[in-house]
Amino acid sequence: MRIRLVFCVIAPVIAALLLSLSGPALAHHGFVSWFDMGRLVTVKGTVTSFDWTNPHAYIYLDVKNEKGATEKWTAELGAIAMLTRAGWRKDILKPGDEITASGNPAKDGKPNMHLDKVVLANGQELASAL
Amino acid sequence: MVRGAVQKRLSFSSGAALTLLALSLTAHAQTGRSQSSTPDISGVWLVEKFEPRLFPNGGAPFTPWAEAKFKGSDLKTNDPNLACLPLGLPRFMISVPYPMEIFQVPTRVIMIQEGPQTMRQIHMNRQHPKDLDPAYSGDSIGKWEGDTLVVDTIGFNDKTWLDGGGLPHSEALHLVERIRRMDHDTLADDFTIEDPMAYTKPITARETYKLKPDWEIHEYVCEENNKYTYQGSDAGK
């Protein structure tokens, strides 16, 4: 599994699309403080855990970087009721699933992201929710 | 003559029946109103445009006291929401991108929210008690002025932020809301914030909500897997 890190400079319009349901990039406790909302990162990896919890659901995945080492990534999602309304279910991801996750990377450079969307192995796309 | 008497009785009966019919049709035609004609603001509502900050571009009319406190507001360390604490008012009404449901009973308007603070209540049958114990959401009393629910809230503690951007307030906070159903699918809350200790003039704003007739309020247990750390109200100062 090869990791492909794609760093893009995102125009404000994409930030607006990202939160088209909700307006500017500042959620109930201001995730903009931890994540760089102007950048997008995409990783491909294997789910090790999917925590269907509030206040945030979390996807944990093992991602092989270009050196072949495993990086442990965390993707933070929104509240589970809003995720449910957006088509998610608690069992939609299982350990071992291979997915592509895109989101805003953590400002501190650690392998964390505020999830924008996932693409499942069958090609299904699921957008996160606040 | 018998026929004449019968005709008179029939006329009277018909007239009475028609009058009763007219009255019941008039009552029925007042849609959305109970027998006491209380406006209906019940239902599941979601903020129409989510912007948790009252002054996203700055410019709040701070007193020196509040400006100093605001400079110390840090979303990463001392936002009480990090500890899943109640949001208080008006933050409960403006800074939550999740739905709330409004219930009306004769003595109370109750709002339950799918968020870190589950409930606020508005007392419809009394005035503010004396010697209020300061509370996160204060004490709210309401009355109808036509189709507008006018809500007056005092008795706040100072442990909350006014909004999701870190605006401080004191225990002297006084909130007045005018809540009105603009049309079947739209609710508006026009609110005025007064806090002479924190702001040099009143702050006014409007929040609008859209009806979500097919939504139910789900559980939201904020403490279940909260990975954020509230470091106390003075953290980072």
Ordered list of secondary-structure elements with their pairings:
The complex is a heterodimer of chains A (130) and B (237).
Chain A lengths: L7 E2 L2 H7 L20 E13 L6 E7 L5 E7 L3 H6 L12 E8 L6 E8 L5 E3 L3
Parallel strand pairs in A: 4-6
Antiparallel strand pairs in A: 1-2, 2-3, 2-5, 3-4, 5-6, 6-7
Chain B lengths: L1 H28 L13 E5 L16 H8 L19 H4 L5 E6 L2 E6 L5 E5 L15 E7 L2 E7 L19 E10 L2 E9 L8 E9 L26
Antiparallel strand pairs in B: 1-2, 1-9, 2-3, 3-4, 5-6, 6-7, 7-8, 8-9
Could you characterize the architecture of this molecule?
- The complex is a heterodimer of chains A (130) and B (237).
- Chain A is mainly beta.
- Chain A has one domain (8-127): OB fold (Dihydrolipoamide Acetyltransferase, E2P) (Beta Barrel), CATH 2.40.50.
- Chain A has two helices and seven strands; from the N terminus they run E-H-E-E-E-H-E-E-E.
- Chain A has helices spanning 12-18, 80-85; strands spanning 8-9, 39-51, 58-64, 70-76, 98-105, 112-119, 125-127.
- In chain A, strands 2-3-4-6-5 form a five-stranded mixed barrel.
- The termini of chain A are far apart.
- Residues 15-28 of chain A have low confidence and may be disordered.
- By secondary structure, chain B is α+β, with helices and mostly antiparallel strands.
- Chain B has one domain: Lipocalin.
- In chain B, 17% of the residues lie in helices and 27% in strands.
- At the A-B interface, helix 2 of A face loops of B.
